[in-house]
Amino acid sequence: MMIIPHLGKSTSWLNTINGISHFLNILINPFKFLAIINHNYPSDDAIEDMYRRYACAAGFDVRKSTNKKKHGMVYMKYLLCNREGFPNTSPVDTLDPKTSKIKRRVDTSRTGCKARIHFKIFPGTTKWLLYEFEEKHNHPLIPRDHMLFSRHHRQLDDTQKSFILTMSTQNIGATIAHRLYTSILGGYNFVGSLIDDFKNYMRDLNCFIGGKMLVDKLNNRKENVENFSFDYRVENKQLNALFWADETSKINYKEFGDVVSFDATFRTNRYHMVFVPFTGIDNHKRCVTFGVGLLSREDTDSYIWSLKSFLKAFGKQPLLVLSDQYLAMQEAIETVFPQSIHRLCMWHITSKLPLKVSLNIVNNPEFRKKFNFLIWNSRLEVDDFEIPAFFKHVPLSGLMRTTSSSESENSTFHQNTHCGSMLVHFMISFEAAMEKQRFTQSSFDFKTNDKHPIMRTPFEIERNASMFYTRTVFRQVQNEMYLSMVSCTQISINTFDDVDECLVKEFIHYIPSNANAYQLDPEVQNDDQWDIPIRHTQ
């Protein structure tokens, strides 16, 4: 509760004059306020601040009234009791389809109260004169223990606004934000603002920030942040598409951009713009975001624009692009990335199997066995079946065989965004998700550099690998080395025309090798596909 020491405590006193009841503000020490009548003030803000503090101590709320202007300059102002005036009782024809008014059952606080102050500016100066003060009210004043519900006490301060904005970046709504804020301060009496006030602020915030503000924000970042790329497109005076990428994203693309997953997700903003992140896999086998696009339409032209913006920002095409079976994506990739290998997501292909084949056939064990053999048979040529299992000639392609990595990352973004988010709010939420992603990457870097793994084999190559690979990838390498020692046994070697053919137990892989050049046949060099040693090549 706000206390005004020089005004003292107040109470409400009923006074009847000529049969009309009036409520007076009885202050223990009212003279310091009453003495300011006909007094000069340095500014109109000083008068307004004084009267609002007086109203808070007396027990009523204040609102502004119409200002009077002369030659475009305000020379007179009014501050009224918030119960001044009367409710609008004009009838509304709810059966008239042309009417735009909606009849709602609402309560009113207007009682025609005349309590107010008038003040005006001295001509030719910046000083203001408080020349009229009406103290009487025609309604009971607010008790001191109920003043926390008054409009004055429900005003959000900067701390509360910042808290609401911070919570919104984590996709926490106004209701839960108010509950958390109440718990932090220790009770509702210490908050002042109600849940509705939190909701109204979030609504006003969303209404204030829109497409233009997002464009201005990103343009400003492009001008002032080194190596930040941003591009946008406008059609019919409406924001049609955006793309942006920062310096960290470009560094990540330089290191991990051989394979890029290109996927779209929905319901991230109130404008129904499609969210299109470009995702790869880092050296910890974690998702890393290279760039982000927002598109108003999912057509070929929009995807072409997005890919051209990507190419403009990063300067080179990826070796392999992975996408779903959306035709517009395929056409855009073929147009903008002619040098890249484009393959479809295995998950999307296999998930459509029940739609293309009857359930009796799908559930048939013999059919499933043959179908799985067809997919995973590495001796098929690339042209036989367009799925990532046959990217043997593309380095690191085995790290991402489906767009599930992109969809996993999209799920992370969904945790921080909402379908009703404005674009700037979406941007703030996206940056929070990116901060989490990069913090996780740093934590994995620390774990790799800070600790040493325990060796499982006597091989010197294992110790060298522990210094070369990150901890996540080394676990795979270590497992392959261990299995090569306990699971793989060389049964025989046959030499034909300087080529050694080795028969390996269990896996039955024939590994032709040129005895002179000591090189494996490229057809079985799957090491490049995963960028780690495979046990049959140890």
Please give the structural blueprint.
Blueprint: E1 10-17, E2 20-27, H1 31-34, E3 39-41, H2 44-58, E4 62-64, E5 68-70, E6 73-81, E7 116-121, E8 128-134, H3 158-169, H4 174-185, H5 195-208, H6 211-224, E9 229-235, E10 238-245, H7 247-256, E11 259-262, E12 274-281, E13 287-295, H8 300-314, E14 320-323, H9 327-336, E15 341-344, H10 346-351, H11 353-356, H12 359-362, H13 365-376, H14 404-416, H15 423-450, H16 460-468, H17 471-486, E16 490-496, E17 499-504, E18 510-514, E19 519-520, H18 527-530
Parallel strand pairs: 11-14, 14-15
Antiparallel strand pairs: 1-2, 3-8, 4-6, 5-6, 6-7, 7-8, 9-10, 10-13, 11-12, 12-13, 16-17, 17-18, 18-19
How would you describe this structure to a colleague?
The protein has 18 helices and 19 strands. 38% of the residues lie in helices and 21% in strands. A 7-stranded mixed β-sheet has the order 9-10-13-12-11-14-15, sandwiched between helices. Strands 3, 4, 5, 6, 7 and 8 form a 6-stranded antiparallel β-sheet that branches. A 4-stranded antiparallel β-sheet has the order 16-17-18-19, with no helix packed on it. The chain has helices at 31-34, 44-58, 158-169, 174-185, 195-208, 211-224, 247-256, 300-314, 327-336, 346-351, 353-356, 359-362, 365-376, 404-416, 423-450, 460-468, 471-486, 527-530, and strands at 10-17, 20-27, 39-41, 62-64, 68-70, 73-81, 116-121, 128-134, 229-235, 238-245, 259-262, 274-281, 287-295, 320-323, 341-344, 490-496, 499-504, 510-514, 519-520. It has 4 domains: 10-86 and 109-149, no CATH class; 158-208; 211-443, no CATH class; 460-537, no CATH class. The model is unreliable at 1-14, 26-32, 378-392, 396-404 and 515-525 (pLDDT under 50). The radius of gyration is 36 Å and the shape is elongated. Strand 12 (274-281) and strand 13 (287-295) form a beta hairpin. By secondary structure, it is an alpha+beta fold.
